[in-house]
């Protein structure tokens, strides 16, 4: 195309390229470099120190725990948000009287700030809080917990709060996917004698793959980048038991150990890329072409 | 006949169950809303009940003490300018990248696409902003938000611009229009609904965010509402009625936006779900 070269001049793309490069790409590349240095607040000369920062990450107990917590949070929220999201979407795709109001209710927490949700849940999750009182009242006393102060459950609690807030967002994407599936497929399946589960497995799931694909990506990447929930609900505590990569970066920044902080960030970058890109390619291949 | 009855029963069962589950969503939100009108001892039960007396004064108190007027304006300025900036730059870039169909354009598209996946490198971004000389300013935060949302917006715009026939711009070119004309006179009117979608998505995510203001806004007079609330929450940790009132006020703008602009939010979600 000869004309396209002259007519669609690149200058229209420059502003976006400039803003995106200066405030996102250049810092990312600089971060890659600085993660191999002893860059600190109190140091004027920055030295290259090879893999030292990474060695420290993998020997420091708190940092290792933060990585483990981040993975737990990411996996728990990916599974929770997507299972609940699909279940809600399938249910709310049926012809129910209260369908529209229920959709709005389930979606509504996701438009609010994570900060709002986290603060609302803080008093409810105390030992004598609303949630334990409800559990007692319905005879599930054995589930009562010190949700935010027991070091071995705290990260799971934070994951539950995040699932509570965001599953409705996933539901909305699944609903959009479901609505693009033609009713005729189901009618044909019913005539052929397929039951509800069979229809779900053979029609709904395969045709829902684009929605599943985007939801898995969103929840996984979002899960690995988790920060605000932890910051507001526990600040990484009690002790360091709910630290995640995001809060460690804030702490390193505050302490002035910037080299270490960027190294943690680089690790997150690597993890997200290594997990997300193959998943993206794999899911694209499995999608049903119509 | 029996089959349709079975279906109807299944419908009631599902509906009943979903209504029950929806209580788990409503309950915490109602505790917050009712609690925001209670006095400071009544609220401490954190259970679902109407306030004995509706204290609207909590709201005026929070508004004064929490510096919310200022924070609201900061939020409007930051979200408004960054979403407008994002809409112009991203749609223009997507237009060129889609129409070019060259190797370089493809590469640039992937270059933007990486931004959807990669996490931002906060500490080095701070250094870049310091080096440019405006660390701590609202301008820096606006530019950072514009850049963080570029990937998503370019991705969304590309999908829509691809569906606009190229013949439309070719006719205009033949009549002597230049790229800028074609973009503003032909493409922009056609993607107006997408602009609304992007504006709302960017507005909601920027309005609700606390991470960027936490790192980049050093002066509390520049803070947005959520960060002011966080500060207030630390200071008045015993007055839960005021904290709840503060949370309600912070949520109000996005809630109103959601009520009036649902259509555009749904179309944004649909684009993701159907096109993948």
Lay out the secondary structure.
The complex is a heterodimer of chains A (290) and B (276).
Chain A: H1 2-7, H2 14-34, H3 52-57, H4 61-92, H5 99-107, H6 114-124, H7 130-137, H8 154-179, H9 183-191, H10 196-207, H11 209-224, H12 228-233, H13 245-255, H14 258-286
Chain B: H1 2-35, H2 57-65, H3 68-100, H4 103-117, H5 122-132, H6 138-148, H7 150-162, H8 166-174, H9 179-190, H10 192-208, H11 211-216, H12 225-235, H13 240-275
Helix pairs in contact in B: 2-13, 3-4, 3-6, 3-7, 3-10, 4-7, 8-9, 10-13, 12-13
Total of domains of chain B: 2
Number of domains of chain A: 1
Secondary structure: helix percent of chain A? 55-70%
The top-level CATH class of the largest domain in chain B is Mainly Alpha
Strand content of chain A: under 5%
The CATH topology of the largest domain in chain B is: MetI-like fold
The name of the CATH architecture of chain A is Orthogonal Bundle
Structural class of chain B: mainly alpha
Q: Which fold does the CATH topology of chain A refer to?
A: MetI-like fold
User: Given the helix and strand composition of chain A, which structural class is it?
Assistant: mainly alpha
Separation, N- and C-terminal Cα atoms of chain A? 30 Å
